Every structure is written in structure tokens, then in C-alpha cells.
Amino acid sequence: MRIASSFALAVAAAATAAAAGHADTNRNELSFGGNARALRTSSANAVTGDNLAGLSIGAARDLALAPLPGLALWAEAGLTTGSADGVMFQTMATELRQLGLTGGLAARYRLHRLVTASARVALGAQRAELHVDGGGSVAQSGQAWGAVAATGAALDLFATSRPPFGIGMRVELGYLAAQGVGLAMHRDSADAVAPLAIRDLMLGQLDLSGPSFAVSVLGQF
Questions:
Q1: Alpha carbons 21 and 65: distance in angstroms, whole number
Q2: Structure pTM?
Q3: Which residue in 21, 122, 135, 187 is deepest, having the highest Cβ count within 10 Å?
Q4: Any domain includes 2
Q5: Cβ neighbours of residue 161 under 8 Å, at least 6 residues apart?
Q6: What's the structural domain count of the chain?
Q7: Is residue 5 part of a domain?
Q8: For residue 82, what is the domain's CATH number?
Q9: What's the burial of 111, exposed, middle or buried (CB within 10 Å: 0-12/13-18/19+)?
Q10: In the chain, at which residue ranges do the beta strands (DSSP E only) sit?
Q11: Residues 80-106 pLDDT 10s
């Protein structure tokens, strides 16, 4: 009984200490910014020579878990968009778009009251959409969903972080591994006329994996 009572007291003390450590911090976060992803796979480079660039929106919640002093675990959810233009076969203009949805965990370590370093992992899905225009004579497009896994390391710099509101900036470097998806290209219009009979195209696996860079503005409360 004494051992059980001592264990219960230790657990209660740890919980109290964790709660006290989070009492002076904001536990909710919203972010908005821009992101870019370098496309390094042969399938992506066949479609465009540009990098994907777009917007990112995120939300996060402190889980009130402190494995180590100064370390906090956050649950995160994010949405990203991106687009890039290019040329196929030296004659066909391409427009590549992506929409990504992810959720994951981040470990954040407070280096200073206004500086936080973090590492995150996330899983989710991505929609790839490709539009091909053959000089106005024929246009085709296709889209498909695939799984993604992302990891990243970030540094947060705050102008102010004291409750009830904090504001700052995040700079992140990461990598996104995307499932290769097969795009079935269909004519945008049944009335499109081409000098030669052009059937619907079936492209190979399109892989949008690559290193990423993002800058965001943070609001915590």
C-alpha cells in the first residue's frame, strides 16, 4: 500500500509540475506563410523545371506533455498549396498544381523566452493536378491523390510570447516524400480539334518528393 501511495503521489507531483510549466505559455497556435519545394525526381522534372511554390496554413495545440525540462509536444495540422509551370516535349505548355493536407507531432525546445527550436513529423495526402496545353489545338488535364510523409526542423523567433498572445516568425527546412501517382490525362473539351488524332494520355508515376523551405508568421494564444 505504501508503494502504491508513493507511486500515486509521484505521478500527481509530475502532473502538477508539467501543468505549472505550461501555465505561463500560450497553448494554441495559428500560422500563415509561404513555402517552396524543389522537385528533384525525373518524373517531375519531365513536367516542369521550376520549383513548387505556394501558401501554407497551419494550426497547432500544446499537448501539455513535458518529457524533458523546456521540451513540449505539440499536435499539428497543415494545408499547403503549390504550383509550377513548364514545357513538355519542347512544344506543350504545362501547369502543375498540388494541394496537401497533413497532421503530425512536433517536439519544441525553448532555447530562450523568445527563441524556440523544433522538429516535426507528419503524415497526410496530396492531390497532384496537371494541365497540358498543346499550342491551343488540344488541352488535357488529370489529377490524382497520393500519400505523403513530411519531416522538418524549424526555428521560431518571437517579438512577444507572453500570454495571452504571442506573435513571431518561423523558418523551416524539411523534406516531403510523396507517393508516386499515375495521372490519366483527358481532353478538357470534346470539341478540341487537333491536326492529328490525339488520344487521352496516360502518364507514368508522377513523384513530387523533394526538400522544402517555408517561412510563416505565427500567432499564439
A1: 10
A2: 0.81
A3: 122
A4: no
A5: 25, 26, 113, 114, 168, 220
A6: 1
A7: no
A8: 2.40.160.20
A9: exposed
A10: 28-37, 52-62, 71-88, 92-112, 115-133, 139-160, 166-178, 181-187, 201-206, 210-220
A11: 999 999 998 788 899 999 999 999 999
